[in-house]
Design a protein that fits this description.
The chain is α/β, with parallel strands linked by helices. It is built from 12 helices and 10 strands. The chain folds into 2 domains: about 220 residues, Spore Coat Polysaccharide Biosynthesis Protein SpsA, Chain A, CATH 3.90.550; about 70 residues, no CATH class. About 40% of the residues lie in helices and about 15% in strands. A 7-stranded mixed sheet has the order 3-2-1-4-8-6-9, with helices on both faces. Strands 5-10-7 form a 3-stranded mixed sheet. Helix 1 links the parallel strand 1 and strand 2. The relative contact order is 0.13. It comes from Chryseobacterium oleae. InterPro entries: Glyco_trans_2-like (IPR001173), Nucleotide-diphossugar_trans (IPR029044). Keywords: Transferase. One of its GO terms (molecular function) is hexosyltransferase activity.
């Protein structure tokens, strides 16, 4: 295997070296591609030093040297990659020694286009743990049982009950299989761009479970995480989720092979978060408006109001 590990780097001077070293641990990692995304801290200099020190580390920036977001940075990394497989890693996260143990065996089957695993969590400080334990706890981010590839898309859309989810950090895909996707990451999405990408990826590609009962990578939680900045009690996280589901709904309009039950479900998810994000008076007005026409959306909306701080 020749794996290209793509790491978007923004404001991660304290963590990026650890991420890189965790990837270089594997002989299967052909290259580590750092995309420095206009960081305000000293991450740029650290990326330069890592590339100078390690032959397998390659360093790139956007042509204007400005911040473009994680989605655009991952797209640039894919464009610059020369490996046969693509894996992703956030700059404040890191791989564990078993990261590619299942992949080495599964990818011997040429029909397998992607493999996913389980993600653990590490709190970089007691303050981060105190603030964000309610989001991540100590639990694995994983798919709870082994599913056939045909079910992964519906599972991620929350149509199969207690499905779980997998992270971009635990995904490995054949680079040539990505050609099935007209669009990779959507740069216009500043949050949940990885979730939206995984939705579409599981629609176009056959994805298989690797190690899902123990962590193969670790999410590093600290006070400056993008997700923790948004998912706190000062900001309504339903706003970014409404944008996510609107984007998914718009995409499905161009896919003729998608069944009507999926289209209806996605519309309801979008509508439910639109209800959840609304101010109190507007919220109840929206519920009344849909009262006799779309009860499932109201039910979902009330669920998302009550559990607005859940991850998804």
């Amino acid at each position: 295997m020749k794996i290209s590990v793509i790491i978007p780097v923004y404001n991660a001077e304290k963590y990026v070296a650890n991420a890189v070293h965790s990837a270089l641990h594997f002989k299967e990692v052909y290259e580590v591609i750092l995309i420095e995304d206009g960081s305000p801290d000293n991450a740029l200099q650290i990326c330069i030093e890592l590339a100078e020190k390690h032959e397998r580390v390659k360093f790139f920036q956007h042509t204007d040297h400005k911040n473009h977001g994680a989605g655009a940075s991952r797209n640039l990394g894919i464009e610059k990659s020369t490996g046969d497989f693509i894996a992703f890693l956030d700059a404040d996260d890191y791989f564990l020694p078993n990261r590619f143990a299942a992949e080495k065996e599964l990818f011997k089957n040429v029909k397998i286009e992607g493999v996913y695993g389980a993600l653990g969590v590490h709190y970089y400080s007691e303050k981060a743990k105190k603030q964000y334990y309610r989001l991540f706890g100590e639990r694995l981010t994983t798919v709870y049982k082994k599913y056939e590839p045909k079910d992964i898309f519906k599972g991620q859309l929350h149509m199969l009950g207690t499905f779980g989810l997998f992270s971009i950090d635990t995904l490995t895909v054949r680079k040539e299989a990505l050609l099935k996707m007209e669009t990779l990451f959507k740069p216009e999405l500043q949050l949940h761009e990885d979730t939206e990408f995984l939705f579409r990826l599981s629609f176009y590609l056959d994805l298989y479970p690797g190690i899902i009962d123990q962590a193969v990578a670790i999410r590093g939680v600290h006070e400056s995480n993008r997700i923790t900045k948004v998912d706190n009690r000062e900001i309504n996280p339903a706003i970014s989720r409404a944008i996510l589901w609107r984007e998914v709904s718009n995409w499905l309009q161009s896919e003729k092979e998608v069944s009507e039950d999926i289209r209806t479900h996605v519309k309801r998810m979008h509508r439910s978060f639109e209800i959840a994000k609304a101010p109190a008076l507007q919220k109840w007005g929206m519920i009344v408006r849909y009262l006799f026409t779309d009860y499932p959306s109201i039910r979902s909306g009330l669920y998302n109001i009550n559990f607005r701080y859940s991850l998804f």
